Amino acid sequence: MxxxxxxxxxxxxxxxxxxxxxxxxxxxxxxxxxxxxxxxxCADPGAVGADGLCRIxxxxxxxxxxxxxxxxxxxxxxxxxxxxxxxxxxxxNRRGGRDSRDAVFxxxxxxxxxxxxxxxxxxxxxxxxxxxxxxRAGDQLASRCATLIRKNPLRYIARDAAFLFxxxxxxxxxxxxxxxxxxxxxxxxxxxxxxxxxxxxxxLEKNRELLGETAELQLRSxxxxxxxxxxLEGIRTALxxxxxxxxxxxxxxxxxxxxQHVDHFLPFSRYAHTRIFNFVLACPRCNCSKSNWxxxxxxxxxxxxxxxxxxxxxLELSRDTAPAGALEVADMALALYRLAGGHAEPLWKxxxxxxxxxxxxxxxxxxxxxxxxxxxxxxxxxxxxx
Length: 386
Prior knowledge:
single chain, mainly alpha, two-stranded antiparallel ribbon, 56% helix, globular
């Protein structure tokens, strides 16, 4: 494993994503899964060992792999009248002269069918809901998926990805510098991999009639952000009930009887997990202006105060909506702001042309201590939950 500069790292990642031969989307899914597992790992203070290496269990990579493919096993609605909704083909491969369902889809379907017998009323639209309904079943499925990954695509990507990680079959091992660069450049890696994925699906003859003139944005949403539309309404209701009001989190404008956006406080491009504590209510102007930036000090103060004042309500309201993620989001916020502080990233403070704060001193002096306090509060909150 090499110690690469940021420029060289991005160049190698670009080669890995765009230039590697690809019969299916599994290689891209593995790149995205390792990246997202690294994002979660970076929040762990003990993520890097004394030898300067980070070790990520392959089962944790498999969980991210399952999160990606879970909604993609469902029928794509198609782009034209008269075209029957069908599951998108992910591979050029054929068996016995005919198309076959992807192994990861079969794995998920079998697990869902078995759990439906035990938990007929459980919501199983996402992997997180599946694992919450039965932790043992969730762990078993992750283990089976890890076995699938070891056979394909891990063995086929190992040589091209040697700059990034090594594997002993049970875990991914990477240098601390690679861990930091994966987290820092997750938005770029995700955009490259998703664009390559979409291009691959369009190139498959089996998908041509179904996709037709499908807009890329529609397909991208179906593939990589399907749960957002299904869950955001419930999350919006939970936020309003917890706050007892309908105001923009950022500018304070009343949103009663006005358009309301549900915004990821930690941007979706950096942390792509649906957790109640990472959402705030926002007006369209603030949400669009904030985009993929991290919010500045005043918003962090507001967010920490919100978590403290409304934490119990949000925890309770999350039961039937989405995972609360109090401690996970607190860890993630601390990790992302520390990383951003390391390269003096500007912070978003308000809508408008001059809406960014360029003050690297804010990170260590004020924001990180605030987020450390938030983590302590969220730890107590999570521990107190029955």
